[in-house]
Design goal:
Structural class: alpha+beta
Number of strands: 15
Largest sheet: 8 strands, mixed
Helix content: 10-25%
Order of helices and strands: EHEEEEHHEEHEHEHEEEEEE
CATH topology of the largest domain: hypothetical protein PF0899 fold
Strand content: 25-35%
Number of domains: 2
Strand order of the largest sheet: 7-6-15-12-8-11-10-9
Length: 323
């Protein structure tokens, strides 16, 4: 409309992407996300990129090197490059409010609105990211505090198959067995020194009773701790999570209070981004009487490696149960 200016919209039309609010939102989201801090990023920015983001996967060398004979030529081998795809999806939510509320309210309407939107975005995106960690084919069920069962499931399955029921909370033995399995299959450590475990509250209860458990506050540099990091044990850094992983998994004398976790190394999950998360302001309608704020993003998540990939094993083990 000629001569009509919309609040905060420098183009006088269309939706508003408020860069200041978007930056504040992303900064505030960081401490709230447990899974998303461990993903690799693949960007496919902007309009016209399609709904899939493609990433390359580099295999190990096909033949290992070894001792050389002085008069023989140097052996020549190769690696292969595979490709994976991430399907990106729209995510978002909005909160409308009236122009009258904005004009007469003693407090800034944006502040509580932003807080609620921030909390919603953190829960939605981190949960979606976490589901991809759970979709690993490699599963483990804690049958006793001194025994467990590894199983393989179909790709994208989020629970254990084969009728294996977890009967105890993960113990120090169970965690050691899972971590040892990652070592045996040569999965690279996440930070070069440690694997990472993201676990529900009940899944960490038994481990915290171990005399070998090191609380994060005692062993770590606060500036280098991961969000939600509770401690370290047996070459693994443990993150406590309350948004996705359940505390009532399996069966233990009818209590069902066992817990769920994922343990992983480097190159576990990748995030494809077409439009990063941002705050959008509704173009005021009804002559400025109807307003609103929304969060919006176009992105997706994918496990980087499958157990069937040439020269690779599963980089994630899901501590789970049939129930």
């Amino acid at each position: 409309m000629a001569g009509l200016q919309y609040w905060g919209d420098d183009s006088s039309g269309g939706y508003l992407t408020n860069n200041r609010l978007s930056k504040q939102l992303r900064h505030a989201l960081v401490p709230m996300m447990k899974f998303r801090q461990f993903v690799d990023i693949k960007e496919g920015w902007g309009k016209g990129v399609g709904d899939q983001v493609i990433y390359d996967k580099i295999s190990k060398i096909d033949t290992a090197g070894g001792a050389l004979v002085e008069t023989n030529v140097m052996p020549e081998n190769k690696f292969t490059i595979g490709r994976g795809t991430i399907t990106v999806t729209e995510y978002g939510n909005s909160i409308p409010y009236t122009g009258k509320l904005d004009a007469l309210s003693e407090f800034n309407v944006q502040n509580p609105t932003m807080k609620v939107l921030r909390n919603d975005m953190a829960e939605v995106l981190d949960k979606r990211c976490g589901l991809e960690f759970k979709r690993t084919q490699r599963k483990y069920a804690c049958t006793t505090t001194a025994a467990g069962s590894f199983t393989s499931s179909a790709d994208a399955t989020t629970s254990t198959v084969g009728g294996v029921l977890a009967k105890v909370s993960p113990s120090d033995f169970n965690y050691k067995e899972v971590i040892d399995q990652l070592k045996k299959t040569n999965i690279p450590k996440y930070d070069g020194e440690n694997y990472v475990c993201i676990a529900s509250v009940n899944a960490l209860r038994s481990l915290k009773n171990s005399t070998e458990w090191l609380a994060a506050a005692k062993y770590g540099d606060p500036e280098r701790l991961f969000n939600g990091e509770a401690g370290r044990y047996y070459g693994c850094r443990f993150i406590e999570e309350t948004n996705l992983l359940v505390n009532t998994l399996g069966s233990s004398s009818g209590t069902n209070a066992l817990g769920e976790a994922v343990v992983f190394g480097a190159e576990a999950v990748i995030e494809g981004i077409a439009v990063p998360e941002e705050i959008r302001a509704k173009v005021p309608t009804d002559y400025g009487r109807s307003k609103g704020l929304a969060w919006y993003a176009i992105l997706g998540y994918k496990k980087m490696w499958k157990a069937t990939d040439s020269g690779q094993n599963s980089h994630i083990i899901h501590i789970s149960s049939t129930h």
